[in-house]
Amino acid sequence: MGDLLFELSQWLYTTPLNDFAQSMSESAFSMWLVERFWAIPILQVVHILAIAGTLAAILMMNLRVFGKVGHATLGETAQRYTKVLWWSLVFVIISGVLMLFGDTVRNLLNSVFWIKMVLVVVGILTAISYTRGLARQSASGLDVAGSGAKAGGIFLIILWCVIILAGRWIAYAPS
Amino acid sequence: MYPEPTNLWERIEYSSLGTTIAESTWMFPLLEVFHVIALVTVIGTIAIVDLRLIGVASKGHRVSLLAKDLLPWTWGAFALAALTGGLLFVSKASSYMINPWFLGKMALLALAGLNMMYLHMTTWRTVEHWEVDPSFPTAAKVAGWLSLIFWVGVVFCGRAIGFTLGIYY
């Protein structure tokens, strides 16, 4: 597995992505970031807080879906935390893209980074489907979530935990 | 072979548990992953209550019900964060103990705990009276703001440790 990922990273160096990563790392913004010691740690703090918002929003919707919290309807809960989820994801993406400028080559030419990106896309698409499903269910007057919503909610929590794992793994994967 | 420990922190670091984690290629990263998952759960769930206390979010909901729903998750995640954090600490105890950002993180954690204890021992005792009011008591708002500040500080110090570990002697 490790060898395969390393070979994949090495292959990335032979693609046009290599030139792109090098030119991105020489951009004025990259230089600006690299010259400021605290810029990346601060962006990482924003990234972590945004992930906290994402996970908390999914957790709150899941608790309602599984009937563990009962003081708001399914529709109210979904509506409230869908907004939190989208705003958190906006900050996850913005801080993530900005951090990319701080360490372009190690990220763009790293197979684990691309695994994380695929997982993030799946995570966002699943979140869209999950929140739409909850909105549809509550619009039809149902205050009890179906098995699809329950399965989707658990999948989302696991998926975002795996995304966190992939995020940490980038720092350790050789590229 | 490890040198003879000269203080408590080195004794912890050179223990069989400390050296096992430090020498493993996967234990430290894996512990970090669980630490991050636990930490974001703690902060996310605490922030929901804090934002209600300061009057920014969940305005139509009773703060006592929100806290009751979330507290088991916050404490469960906090226990996991403490356990994984403790194991991370054991593997590099002497480096952490001379790192000002680590000491700052511990101080902020203590302040966050004291802030929560003070709120629960004072203003929270009458929560059922004031949680239905449009505006919460100043003490509750201050506790919410302080909690948010302390926890953001904890995350900042946590990241700063990663960038400064090993530069202090």
Helix fraction of chain A, binned, reads: over 70%
Extended strand count of chain B: 0
User: Which structural class do the helices and strands of chain A define?
Assistant: mainly alpha
Largest sheet of chain B: none
Number of separate structural domains of chain A: 1
What's the overall geometry of chain B?
elongated
Q: How many independent structural domains of chain B?
A: 1
Which bin fits the share of residues in helices of chain B?
over 70%
Strand content of chain A: under 5%
Q: End-to-end span of chain A in angstroms?
A: 14 Å
Rg on CA atoms of chain B, Å? 19 Å
Name the overall outline of chain A.
Answer: elongated
SS element count, helices of chain B: 8
What is the terminal-to-terminal distance of chain B? 21 Å
Task: Give the helix/strand class of chain B.
Answer: mainly alpha
Assembly classification? heterodimer
SSE order of chain A, one letter for each helix or strand: HHHHHHHH
Low-confidence stretches of chain A: none
Largest interface: A-B, 31 and 27 residues
Q: Report the average pLDDT across residues of chain A.
A: 88
Would you report the number of β strands of chain A?
0
Could you describe the 3D structure shown?
- The complex is a heterodimer of chains A (175) and B (169).
- By secondary structure, chain A is mainly alpha-helical.
- Chain A is built from 8 helices and no strands.
- Chain A has one domain (2-172).
- The radius of gyration of chain A is 19 Å and the shape is elongated.
- Chain A starts with a helix and ends with a helix.
- Chain B has one domain (8-164).
- Chain B is built from 8 helices and no strands.
- The two termini of chain B are 21 Å apart.
- In chain B, 37% of the residues are buried.
- The interface between A and B is medium-sized, with 31 and 27 residues.
